[in-house]
Amino acid sequence: MSKTEWKDEFSVGVGELDEQHKKIISMINLLNESQSETSQVEVVRNVLIEMMKYSKFHLDYEENLLEQNDYPDFENHKKSHLDYMMAYSSISIEVMKHGKDQVPKRDCKLVCVSAYH
Fold first, then answer.
1. Are 35 and 100 in contact (CB under 8 A)?
2. What is the rounded distance in angstroms from the CA atom of residue 73 to the CA atom of residue 115?
3. What is the arithmetic mean of pLDDT over 75-79?
4. Could you tell me the end-to-end alpha-carbon distance of the chain, in angstroms, rounded to an integer?
5. pLDDT band at 48, cuts 50/70/90?
6. DSSP string, the chain
7. Helices 105-114 and 74-98 meet at what angle, rounded to 10?
8. What does the alpha-carbon distance between residue 108 and residue 59 come to, in Å, rounded to a whole number?
9. d(Cα 23, Cα 19) in Å, to the nearest integer?
10. Could you give the percent of the chain with pLDDT greater than 90?
11. Which are the contacts of 93, defined by CB distance < 8 A and separation ≥ 6?
12. Which of 104 and 73 is assigned the larger pLDDT?
């Protein structure tokens, strides 16, 4: 999968969220790089763990911000976060159990794309 670069069209207009989204993009790029044939499974696992931690932090932060500002579609947006975390968790578990080569890259791509909810 090609490297993703930050674009102005990704901006949500809230500086802190944009910075967090930039960090998520860099983590997605790192995940993609860690899936190369020469990477050790432990490297992939570590990237997945860090990405899970940061995603949880980010999604909690974003949900609090949206709720405080009476975001009109808050419940659906919150559900998209839950869906993302469930898909991400599923892929992470497969990698932890069976190694990085057992998870199709299309599944990782799906989770990465859904990060742009």
1. yes
2. 18
3. 94
4. 19
5. confident
6. -PPP---GGG--S-HHHHHHHHHHHHHHHHHHHHTSTTS-HHHHHHHHHHHHHHHHHHHHHHHHHHHHTT-TTHHHHHHHHHHHHHHHHHHHHHHHHH-GGGS-HHHHHHHHHHTT-
7. 150
8. 19
9. 6
10. 35
11. none
12. 73
User: Measuring CA to CA, which residue among 21, 26, 44 is closest to residue 117?
Assistant: 21
pLDDT in tens, 82-98: 988 888 888 788 777 77
CA 104 to chain centre: 17
Q: Which residues contact 38 (CB under 8 A, 6 or more apart)?
A: none
Query: How many residues comprise the chain?
Result: 117
Instruction: Tell me the one-letter amino acid at 85.
Output: M
Alpha-carbon span 82 to 66, nearest angstrom: 15
In Å, what is the CA distance from 12 to each residue of 16, 19, 21?
10, 10, 9
